[in-house]
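Notes continue from the previous slide.

Worked example: a multi-chain complex. Inputs as given:
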Amino acid sequence: MRRLVSLAAAGVAAGLTLTACGFGGDDSGSGGDGDGDGGSTSLDLLVPQYSDGTTALWEEIIASFEEENDGITVNLEVQSWDNINDVIRTKVQAGQAPDILNIDAFSGFAKDDLLYPAEDVVSAETLDDFQESFVENASLDGTVYGLPMIASARALFYNQDVLTQAGITEPPATWDDLLAAATAVTDLGTGVYGYGMPLGSEEAQAETSIWTFGGGGSWSDGDTITVDTPENLAALEFMKTMIDAGATQPDPGATDRTPMLDVFVQGQIAMAVGLPPTIGQIEERNPELNYGIAPVPTQDGSPVTLGVADHLMAFRNDDDKQDAIRAFLDHFFSPEVYLSFVDTEGFLPTTMSGAEGTANAERFADFLAVLPDARFYPSTNEAWAATQGALQTLVGQIQTQDAASVLQQIQASADDA
Amino acid sequence: MTAQTQTRPGGRPTRRPRGGPSRWGALARALPWLGPTLVLMAGIVFFPAGYMLWTSFRDLSQFGVDNGPAGFDNYARLLDFTALPRVLGNTVLWVVGVVVVTVVISLGLAQFLDKAFPGRRLVRLTIIIPWAASVVMTTTVVYYGLDPFYGIINTFLVDVGLLDRPYGFTRNAVPAFFTAMGIAVFVSLPFTTYTLLAGLQTIPPDIREAAQMDGAGPWATYRRIILPLLRPALAVATIINIINVFNSLPILQVITGSIPGYNADTTTTLIFKFIRADRQIDTASALSVVNFLIVLAVILVYLRVVRPMRED
């Protein structure tokens, strides 16, 4: 009997340890080392990893900043995109938010009243340099909180050789063209799939947005999240038509974007929506690929693309640091520093001076051309984060379920948030 | 271990402490030695568990800001979750399937490794290797092997003619779930086998000899002599496996992570989805509490029904 009790106790203890989830203390230690003595301030900077060179790039920027600004040190923390949302959530819960954060969405932090308005942490000159559409996308209730940092847009990559083989002369401009072209490729019977549709959890929200935006739909009417609308339903039903017609790769519902683009690069998929960095991937992994870039096909052929902007934001941890934050952000957005960042990482600039000076202008001409028609996620809506999660988790089900019920499920998650 | 069990009668211990005050005295004398362990247990076991319980009754924003008490709202949201029955069913299948298959295979393997044969050491080493590799690593190798576009296993199956074209083993809920179960069995085998092997080696050879003298065949010896004596080792192996398998996230995460919907989720991966996708830390805490209660109940039922520590 005693043995049983001790064994059960061991079981309980082990169960507890294994089931217990993470926690954060309530102490609000903002790492205020050095304030008060007036001499030195340290800033915590948390950034995601865009590429293998991200850390070195930031270290260079920080070194040049510290050289010009005596007494300010910047502590860099680089996290993968997979982890950064968990890291920031844990830090905020523990009262240890970084001073400056680089991430996609800012509105949740702004709603929780954690951020400085942009005008408090950068000079007016820097603020005026951003392109209008990006500033709008970075505001919440009329106040700018995020500093648009990099932009990216989507376009259709197509394999010229395969399309020629299937008798397609022009890249598709409308959904019907796309369906016809993709089916023609599949019908060749060479094992090459027509259109790559990544609806796996990695970035299903992007692929779905490209289709819904392309059919005149949207995710928000300003205040509420509108997933379940006739326009969005039409878009999802057309996606389902593509899947059912065999115009896509098998099992699109569980296909993640990154590995799928590798399959495109290897020539096994004829068409897929890609990003500016896709060009670099093709150069690196299969330079022989004979490919072209065209605007994303839409329902009626009118130009629309999905734009994504990442932002820099400053957390209101400790008012003593505001000047140091301003100095750092102004340094980052000074044209030469900013352009070296954008050009090295291979993104599109969000500032007007940057658009003129970027070395990527020619390379990314196809993307810069569609940027004026870019539409964004409704990331200023508080419920968007949960909606995005629901899209990632659920939208792939259109492969086996009817589109209407999938949309209803996602709408329910959005309403619940 | 077994011998010790047999010498101790099932009733009360014969030596009793000398009475009240000195018992407390004994406790006080023991405290300095127990102290560090108790502090450690409080710090890494009871505090996080308590904090989890507390969180499950709070209303937390997506970014972890505490908006006050929530009563039972988080639990109510769990009950409203339409996929819950499927997830619970998956969890049962996952735990029972993986643990039963693991224990059965391990019993055979342990029996095999207990025999003397040339190269036994090498074989024993081979069996422990899956344990030395990280679970995520093992799982990722299988995941890429099964990839329909460039997976070596899929290509092999097509080449030998078993499949007409590559199949999305990891792209559909049911095959992916069974693939994950297979991997879970594979990575659970080393620990279970070694626990049972250790148990087998405590059985004195003369007991087997005695059974043989009495004319018991190999199967009868195994069933009536070996298996009962293995019971404590089996109990440990089973309970540790239940806890471990129940809380296992990485295998399912790697294999079924990109599958839409909840058809391939267990309660543990659902906690992960609540946090990562739905940003509901509070609901995830509530499910963690429920998860903990389930594993506790499973172990208690196991101890009651199977009575692995029974001595007869």
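Summary box: Confidence is low (pLDDT under 50) at residues 1-11 of chain B. The CA atoms of residues 235 and 306 of chain B lie 9 Å apart.
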